[in-house]
Amino acid sequence: MTAGLLFGLNAALNLTLMLALARAMPAGAYGSLATWTAGALFFATAVFDWIRFSAMRFYTPQTRRDEPGCGRPSTSPFWDQRRLRPFS
Fold first, then answer.
1. How large is the angle between the packed helices 27-58 and 2-24, nearest 10 degrees?
2. Which residues lie closer than 8 Å to 22 by C-beta, 6 or more apart?
3. Distance between CA atoms of 53 and 42, rounded to whole angstroms?
4. Residues 45-73: pLDDT tens digits?
5. pTM for this one?
6. What is the 3-class SS of the chain, one letter each residue?
7. Which of 40, 53, 66, 86 is least surrounded, with the fewest CB atoms within 10 Å of its CB?
């Protein structure tokens, strides 16, 4: 719940900031800012997805069989959160 509220607050503040900048900046400068912002967001998403997919690649059935505790820290909090959600 807290993470969702923080996400919403961050999105609202980012929207407010970009709208304020759109009003204050000339059109060409704001277009450049928007383009660079979109590029940075794309780059960050690509890097984090690459890290996630790299971790998934090495978590094979052989790893699960040979090292049974390997996946516990990442999977148990997920299931605990799903159980605590009010609308599940």
1. 150
2. 30
3. 16
4. 999 988 888 877 777 777 777 877 665 55
5. 0.54
6. CHHHHHHHHHHHHHHHHHHHHHHHCCHHHHHHHHHHHHHHHHHHHHHHHHHHHHHHHHCCHHHHHHCCCCCHHHHHHHHHHHHHCCCC
7. 86
State residue 10's pLDDT score. 92
Q: What is the mean pLDDT of residues 32-49?
A: 93
Q: Are 44 and 36 a contacting pair, CB within 8 Å?
A: no
Structural tokens at position 79: 């299931």
The C-alpha atoms of residue 79 and residue 77 are separated, in whole angstroms, by: 5
pLDDT number for residue 25: 93
Residue holding tokens 């607050």? 9
